[in-house]
Amino acid sequence: MKNFKKFRITFNAPVTLGFVFISFAVMLLGVITHGTVTNLLFVTWHSPLTSPLTYLRLFTYVLGHNSWQHYIGNMAYMLLLGPMLEEKYGSKKILGIMVITAAVTSLFNYIFFWDVALCGASGIVFAFILLTSFTSFKEGEIPLTFILVFVFFIGKQIYEGIFVDDTVSNLSHIIGGLIGAVVGYRLNRKKSPETDQP
């Protein structure tokens, strides 16, 4: 019993946990309002540029989810990968990656896919997946884990985008994954021993 008292709960990954909790609150609001709040503030689509909400939704759509299954699936990955990435790169960089992924994905969708609405953190999840595969990266090497992750996750999205007709936006997954790969390469390349030598 004395040993048990020594343990305490720590807020170990503020950005990840904050995102999970805010998304949970948004999900509850969506359920209570039968989707009205979600559709108004947390789904991005080709709405008029004259509306201020258009610009807000370019970022907030990642907090919205269309079902509990959708929410739990994304948050499971966030909680699995987010804390490790925050510990390695810092909360500010992880928050930056999330914001960039949200903005790039939504802008690309807004410009090229007028009839597609985006909702959910799947793009960020794929960015985290690819970013995680670079944790053991060294200059001049390509981790086999990265190649396999890229083939399995991004390859699957490309295949489904071409041959499978569903409601999942494979484009957001692909863009998120590419951002994670590029950022992972750049961050770890700067930290590799070879680049630190004079």
Task: Kindly describe this structure.
The structure is a single chain. The chain is 70% helix and 0% strand. The termini are far apart. The longest helix has 22 residues. It has one domain: Rhomboid-like fold. The protein is mainly α and 198 residues long. The chain is built from 10 helices and no strands.
Question: Which stretches are low in confidence, meaning pLDDT under 50 for 5 or more residues running?
Answer: 192-198
The shape is: globular
Major β-sheet profile:
none
Distance between the termini: 55 Å
Provide the CATH topology.
Rhomboid-like fold
What is the tally of helical segments? Answer: 10
Mean pLDDT: 84
Helix content: over 70%
Strand content: under 5%
Any idea of the CATH class? Answer: Mainly Alpha
Radius of gyration: 18 Å
The count of strands amounts to 0
The CATH architecture name reads Up-down Bundle
Please, how many domains? 1
Give helix and strand order, one letter per element, not per position.
HHHHHHHHHH
Helix/strand-derived category reads mainly alpha
The H-level CATH homologous superfamily, spelled out, is Rhomboid-like
